[in-house]
Amino acid sequence: MKIGTIGTGSIVETFLDAVQQIENVECTAVFSRRIETGETLADKYDIKQVYTDFNLLLSDENVNFIYIASPNSLHYDYALKALQNGKNVICEKPFTSTVEETKTLINLARDKKLLLFEAITTLHLPNYNKIKEKLNSLGELKLVQCNYSQYSSRYDKFLAGEVTNIFNPAFSGGSLADINIYNLHFVTRLFGKAKEVKYIANIAENGIDTSGIALLKYDNFICECTGAKDSEGPNFAIIQGTKGYIKLNGAVNRCPSLEIVIDDKIETYNEQSFSNRMVYELIDFENIYNNNDLEESYKLLDHSLKVMETAVLARKDAGIVFAADNK
């Protein structure tokens, strides 16, 4: 895998650190609108090529994957153009702004027999797989709670009147799209699509959600997904059944360790050895690429579509409107 990156934020640096830990994966090019920013990133990670023209990146024959970590609203346009130009794509969360955008990208990837991945670390973590393995031991499920709350470094600026991308509806920002989306992935992969979706949010004057609770109703149990960028909180997930519960100690995008409690007997698990959570998804992506396993890629895309459908239902239930909704 030879990857060209879009974006220069902290998530890109985490991604590049993960790339360096996998033998047959490398970053060969960086794209940035500002040459100085691109060169700084390239120098830090010993990347030879820097582009300020996206078309030049797409024409680089030494790049077969495009990694997209741009502002949320730009994911779709970058991914669409990359696929149109024959490049495989790894796109950061949230995958797109609307269900229609997600469907368009999936259909294009299928038509062109290209790989398209949403970079959701949760799905690829060994501790998450352990949760899936142990679910049946809980008996009949009753309640699921997830909390991923992290005070944003940009929230103080927002309160002072400076609207950065992540708190801007024009850029598809907000707590649901940026942080609670991980909780939606966590529960949807375990339990499928919810029967009912509600979203109760703290809405700022510009119409963006700074925190909120998504309520998902399944046939026999309820999920509560809390996400906040305006306050700190204990990050966890708890799955309760008639015979016991599973407690995840930490945010669902990391799944650092878990406890399984059955009849007051506690079992503790941590099957993860890499400190960088993104290593695991890259290992899975590389395996799919090496085996040309398009069907596995499409299964992941089917999951991403379910999550996007749920996220949009939640967002619209709270009356949050993105600029992308009016395209």
From TrEMBL:
- All copies of domain GFO/IDH/MocA-like oxidoreductase, residue ranges: 137-246
List, alphabetically, the InterPro entries matched.
Answer: Gfo/Idh/MocA-like_OxRdtase_N (IPR000683), GFO_IDH_MocA-like_dom (IPR055170), NAD(P)-bd_dom_sf (IPR036291)
Q: Which GO terms describe its molecular function?
A: nucleotide binding; trans-1,2-dihydrobenzene-1,2-diol dehydrogenase activity
EC number per UniProt: 1.3.1.20
Against Pfam families, the record matches this protein to: GFO_IDH_MocA, GFO_IDH_MocA_C3
Domain named Gfo/Idh/MocA-like oxidoreductase N-terminal: which ranges?
Answer: 2-117
Which keywords describe this protein according to UniProt? Oxidoreductase
Q: Keyword Oxidoreductase, does the record have it?
A: yes
The superkingdom listed in its UniProt entry is Bacteria
Concerning Gene3D superfamilies, the annotation shows: Dihydrodipicolinate Reductase, domain 2, NAD(P)-binding Rossmann-like Domain
Q: What is this protein called?
A: Oxidoreductase
